[in-house]
Specification:
2 domains; seven-stranded antiparallel beta sheet; 16 strands; binds calcium ion
Amino acid sequence: MNLRKFLIPTLSLFFIAFSCKDDETEFESTPPRDRQEVYDENEVEIQTYLETHFFNYEDFDFTDNTNPANDEFTLVLDLISTDNGTQDRTPIIDYLNQADGVYPRLDIKIVTENDIDYNLYILKVREGEGDNISTLDAAAMTYSGTIVDGSVFDSQVSIESGQPFILTGVGSVGGVVAGFREGIVEFKTSTGYTENGDGSVGYQGHGIGVIFMPSGLGYFSLPPTADIPQYSPLFFNLKVVSRSNTDYDSDGVPSHLEHPDGDFTEDDDDTDGDSFVNFIDSDDDGDGVLTSDEVQQKEYEDDGTSQFMTKADAQAYYTANAASDEIFIRIEAELDGTYTLHTLIVPATMVNGVSLPNYLNSAITTELE
Ligand SMILES: [Ca+2]
Ligand SMILES: [Ca+2]
Ligand SMILES: [Ca+2]
Ligand SMILES: [Ca+2]
């Protein structure tokens, strides 16, 4: 099947940030420019930028990625110039083709959109020490979005003030532009955080870098704000701190676990062949029993004696008490100030010597509570 029909074109990266301004956006009367022609121009603009700019690499300890001082690092891009005495700085383009594991590094990821193979440039100062991020996840980050001249069109300086971004739009659920999604998943999350006592949170081991995207992976002819010119490349300076599950079909199984190969071009994730891939199919094996009734969704409000009063309490309970096959789903803040831990158990049955989840096996139709 063609999954594309479920992935709505995402005009707005920062759906929430810009939703109040949508009435200013009007469809242009002139037809959009040729995508390849725009891309060719953008590629030159981005390369020129990378050749003429540096970042504050002297403020980061590359001999020890996990040096706590690195957690305080904020990446700053600047022009290489005799005017500010920076003529000897290393241009960003020099970090291309680094050996595996060498940082800083500039990677090129080929992202295909509208039949064009785009170069997405990703500067990684630190990849991140935490978890991998799937294109079907939501991800939380601080960021600053700029255009080529350095002017900021949007930013989020603290996680507390922001929402996690759902990376892939499905149906009425929002999503982010392709360049942002494909860039984010090249980083990993933080390993932990510390509450500073003033409401702010410090993260450890998070991914740090910049995504440089051509407009064809951004807003192209329809920028969501007048601060972004049409056909403008976009740069996102990021600290990637956490990921969370999505569940588009509300069947209890997190989307990323229903889409193991992580691509949108093959049909190999459609177990029952009904042309709805598993992450948008609420009865994955087509046996008439909803997936949500073939898995066990569990909730814990307390540790046996007292309610979870912090997110960390609930997290610690999961770490100490979860069964080996119990999957972490999320921790939910309740209105009364307590927290609820949600987990999942996926019952499986041996089939020809292989353990197969019951929700992917139409021969098993046992409904769970
Ligand atoms: Ca299906
Ligand atoms: Ca499903
Ligand atoms: Ca089923
Ligand atoms: Ca089944």
